Amino acid sequence: MHVPAGRKLWLVSWTLVLLICITVAIGIAVLYSAGNGKWEPWAGRQLIRFGVCLAVALSIAVTDIRFWLRQAYWIYFLAFALVAGVEVAGSIGMGAQRWINLGFFQLQPSELMKFALVLALARYFHGRTAEDVARPLNLIVPALMILAPAGLVMKQPDLGTAVMLGLIGAAIFFAAGVRLWQFAVVIGGGLAAAPFAWHFLRPYQKQRILTFLDPESDPLGSGYHIIQSKIALGSGGIFGKGFLQGTQSHLNFLPEKQTDFIFTMFAEEFGLIGGLALLGLFTLIIAYCMAISLRIQSQFGRLLAFGVAATFFFYLFINTAMVMGILPVVGVPLPLVSHGGTAMLAVMIGFGLVMSANIHRDTRIGRQGSYDD
Amino acid sequence: MYRDNTRSKVFTRRALLFGGGKLALLTLLAGRLYQLQVLESDQYVLQAEENRVSVRLLPPPRGRIFDRKGEELAVNRENYRVLLVPEQTKDVEGTLDAIAQLLSNGDAMDRKRILRDVRRQRSFTPVLVRENLPWDDVARLEEHAPDLPGVVIDVGQSRDYLYGPELAHVIGYVAQVSEAEQGDDPLLALPGFRVGKAGIEKVYDEALRGRAGSSQVEVNAVGRVIRELKRTEGQPGADTTTTIDLELQKLAMDRVSKHTAAAAVTLDIETGDVLAMASWPAFEPSLFNQGLTGDQWRSLIRDPLTPLNNRAINGAYAPGSTFKVAVAMAALEDRIDPEMRVFCRGVVQLGDARFHCWKKHGHGSMALLEAIEQSCDVYFYEIARRVGIDKIAAMANKLGLGLITGIDIPGEKPALIPTRKWKKEATGVAWQPGESLVAGIGQGFVLATPLQLAVMTARLSSGRAVVPKLVRKPIPPSRSAEPREPLFSDIGINVGHQKIVLEGMRRVSNSPRGTAYRARITEKGMEMAGKSGTSQVRRISASERDASGGVRKREVPWKEMEHALFIAFAPVERPRYAAAVVVEHGGGGSAVAAPIVRDLLLEAQKIEQRRASDKIARLDARAS
């Protein structure tokens, strides 16, 4: 069953790669516009970065899926250590940094953490039978796997990542077959705990939630982002203002146009048609990953592909819902499109894992990931 | 394997369920996008436009002011200013130090005001550091500009008064808009905008100001201008031509400035044009434009000689003997025989009071003409007693005294011509017969401004209700040879009576016994006819001068000297110009004021002559 890596490249799902490339190309075009029609400072770098990330994804894809299963916990601990490291560094006086400076690139461990969690949970449930999953005691370890990093990033404070980690964990629990009444208990408990959680939120986080509920209350302060984003989207209309013609973004009324609000900029310049096309593209990518997950024989591979698709979806939904004023501004980038190295790397690692699971979809994997079970 | 089968089935079911959930949420997003970009789009398009477009006012250039021959009196000059954009500067204080070193008078920078403006305004709004920079400073700043981020040199417009104090009282000045002046015109809210505060600048402010243009500009989120979208040009302020004759004005200022305080007015009798209006001491009008310092303002306000006051229109002086022409006119109209004789012994008794003639030993027997010529007080005591104050006042009013003349600059005083009724109302005491006598020689309650005296002279010599103007609509030149219809209506005085009074005035200046014979015009055909006045001073004439304190009056002999007055018109045969001069505490009217009037009337006629010959020369040149 050993297939050389070179041969495996033929087995890579090139349709998925194509969809990703189109999405990234759109992102680069928007970054080019955000730079006022220049490759500097964003579009050029994003292109190079994508090249590197694509290479990483393909290398992951051709690596045996069992290797990733066996390394899953190590990867999880490494990511967790990095998140903790950032937290410690931040607390000893480097300010509220969320990244590690690697010289050529600033690594944000919290982005990697999301896919590390998917990996670790997939491995955990791979080793548990349906009966095991039915026992609540068996859910304590995976729950801690979710809560530990979520609590850490919450302290940073990074509300967006914490929520994402919770949602990713919940999605995988759901797919792994956890009983629905258990979800009901957790959700009920969560709602009951909400008033206490509110107490622990930082003032600026409370402010964000409050202004989300009533953005007009503070049009020059926290509500400014949401209002300006809605103006940009709405004024784009059906056909948009045209490439490089977005007034809201080019005149800097739109904040963070190259990162969190890039969807707004795109939809201002390309209108409803552009916005729906981009959403459609994302839907295709997600659907493709879901389709892959359904064809995979191993529980690990299935949960991995499912988890990556879910993570990708959460990124997409939280970001776009945020810029459209459906969700509060929590600082989640639009995957593959927003400017930013780690998010791109993390998402491409995720797709690498999905492709690896796809290539090795018929590989049988033992409970501990042995090669010959 | 079967276990995996269960897991697989559960996974498949739940994955599809989850996928369905995702699809629902994505549909929600699409729906929201539709709502924003289609249903509510109009509203957001409007808001985006409001964000982007900002309207800036373009201040129009202020209208220029010319003299009657088209000489520029007030113009706009390029005003080089140095501005500082705080956000482009790392260190505001340091940059100010650097600017101060480059300026020729850098220490005089008002740092407190600049730093206050920096604090108050948004950081991209330029703050004015200094204006009216000399060219050398501009060049030096331009040279160092690359090292001084945030320093901007810009060109504005600044009012320039080419003749400064010489026309300050007539033209007035512009200064920054005060709180109370803020109105509908958006221009007024522009920082640094100037409006007329006095003189012609104030009265004709709206016409001079023009209408603002506007520029629609695209601004970015912090309000910085990206580009201009649309421009609507405003309407420049209308140029205004005054009736002032610059040459004559300069002469008048030159003459009055030889004295401590004086005023002179010259009128065109036919048109009412004010050819010259001088008031001394004067002030530098551009100080107001640049912004007075507190010290400058206090010294102007506290100066006992009140340089800000236009004495020609608001200095109320006892007219003294110049008033006798009005009394004489009133007497003639009251059927007093001009041949009636009064014997002057130098003093006359009325009840307990004694009334003196200026000539201690008396003039002897006087008829009207001689009494005017020699300014006999006793004669006028007698006719004033006979005519009574109310008829004198009616005539004085007819001649323009005691009422606003209607000159088109602000601050004019009506001065005062008393009547019986007025006295009873104002003081509660009945009119005393002796007061009529005093009024008969232009003393007591009687007060007049230099402009009123000039108007009286003009009305008396023309018989028409001359109204003085500093700006008027141009009178179209008459094509036909027929004389133009007079501009002013007849005031209704008997022409015979008028001739007698004018003859008296002619003698004042042309008869060897006349009081002003020595200050006559000797040029043939240009002779003037006048009346001198020397009014006693117990109180200082202008009411505001009372405040300067009584103590100093006794210390300074100048304050106790009499006011010197003279009124005259010329030429005698066909009156065209009228003039009045008051020299405060100047002494004798015929000795001090008459020479000034003579110079003004002579020059006015010579200017007219020069212009006529220039015109002929031009016509000849064209013909050949």
Describe the protein.
- The complex is a heterodimer of chains A (373) and B (624).
- Chain A is mainly α and 373 residues long.
- Chain A has one domain (5-196, 224-359).
- Helices cover 70% and strands 1% of the residues of chain A.
- Chain A has 15 helices and 2 strands.
- In chain A, strands 1-2 form a two-stranded antiparallel ribbon.
- In chain A, a hairpin with a 4-residue loop joins strand 1 (100-101) and strand 2 (106-107).
- In chain A, helix 4 (65-94) packs antiparallel against helix 5.
- Chain A is globular, with a radius of gyration of 21 Å.
- Chain A starts with a helix and ends in a 14-residue tail after the last helix.
- The model of chain A has no long low-confidence stretch (mean pLDDT 87).
- With 624 residues, chain B is of the alpha+beta class.
- Chain B folds into 2 domains: 56-241, Penicillin-binding protein 2a (Domain 2); 312-472 and 485-614, DD-peptidase/beta-lactamase superfamily (Beta-lactamase).
- In chain B, strands 2, 3, 4, 5 and 10 form a 5-stranded mixed β-sheet that branches.
- In chain B, a hairpin with a 5-residue loop joins strand 8 (213-219) and strand 9.
How do the strands and helices of this protein lay out in sequence?
The complex is a heterodimer of chains A (about 375) and B (about 625).
Chain A: H1 5-11, H2 14-34, H3 43-62, H4 65-94, E1 100-101, E2 106-107, H5 109-126, H6 130-134, H7 140-155, H8 159-176, H9 180-200, H10 203-213, H11 224-236, H12 247-250, H13 262-295, H14 299-323, H15 341-359
Antiparallel strand pairs in A: 1-2
Chain B: H1 2-39, H2 41-52, E1 53-58, E2 65-66, E3 72-84, H3 92-102, H4 111-120, E4 127-130, H5 135-144, E5 151-161, H6 168-171, E6 173-176, E7 194-198, H7 199-203, H8 205-209, E8 213-219, E9 225-232, E10 240-241, H9 246-256, E11 262-268, E12 274-280, H10 286-290, H11 294-302, H12 311-314, H13 324-333, E13 342-344, E14 347-350, E15 353-356, E16 364-366, H14 368-374, H15 377-387, H16 389-398, H17 420-427, H18 433-440, H19 450-462, H20 495-510, E17 529-535, H21 550-555, E18 563-570, E19 577-583, H22 589-623
Parallel strand pairs in B: 2-10
Antiparallel strand pairs in B: 1-8, 2-3, 3-4, 3-5, 6-7, 8-9, 11-12, 11-19, 13-16, 14-15, 17-18, 18-19
Helix pairs in contact in B: 9-22, 13-15, 13-16, 13-20, 14-20, 15-18
